[in-house]
Write a structure and sequence with these properties.
32% strand, four-stranded antiparallel sheet, 2 helices, globular, alpha+beta, Alpha-Beta Plaits
């Protein structure tokens, strides 16, 4: 049998109640590290209970970005998630995963204490 390979996919979304500031630009800042820790935990909980659940390894928030035109009251979140792709498994069902994430975030409006821009979720395989 061939061993599973680790595959990555990206998840991007915008938080509307996390004001962007320069601390979120700096991976060494306490605010960046704390916010990344919370984000990783929330994403891990969300995706462990999804169609990729058994194969899911985890997400790592990679970047927080300023949303152009948002008066710095919103923050774009970029994360890279990893799962085991079994040789026999179908490709990542991005559409199915998107719909499950949408359902589990109340129509892409809430992730834990954060409010989401309902038009901002992007899942890329």
């Amino acid at each position: 049998t061939t061993a599973a390979t680790l595959e990555r996919f990206t998840v991007n979304f915008t938080i509307t109640n996390l004001p962007y500031n320069s601390d979120l630009e700096n991976p060494d800042s306490a605010k960046f590290r704390a916010t990344r820790r919370v984000m990783n935990t929330l994403l891990d909980r969300l995706l462990k209970d999804s169609i990729i659940g058994p194969a899911f390894h985890g997400c790592e928030t990679t970047d927080f970005r300023y949303v152009l035109g948002s008066n710095r009251d919103q923050t774009q979140v970029d994360a890279v998630c990893t799962y085991s792709k079994e040789p026999w498994a179908a490709p990542l069902d991005r559409v199915g995963l998107y719909h499950q994430v949408s359902n589990k975030t109340r129509g892409i409006t809430q992730l834990g204490p954060y409010s989401l821009d309902k038009d901002s979720l992007y899942v890329n395989g």
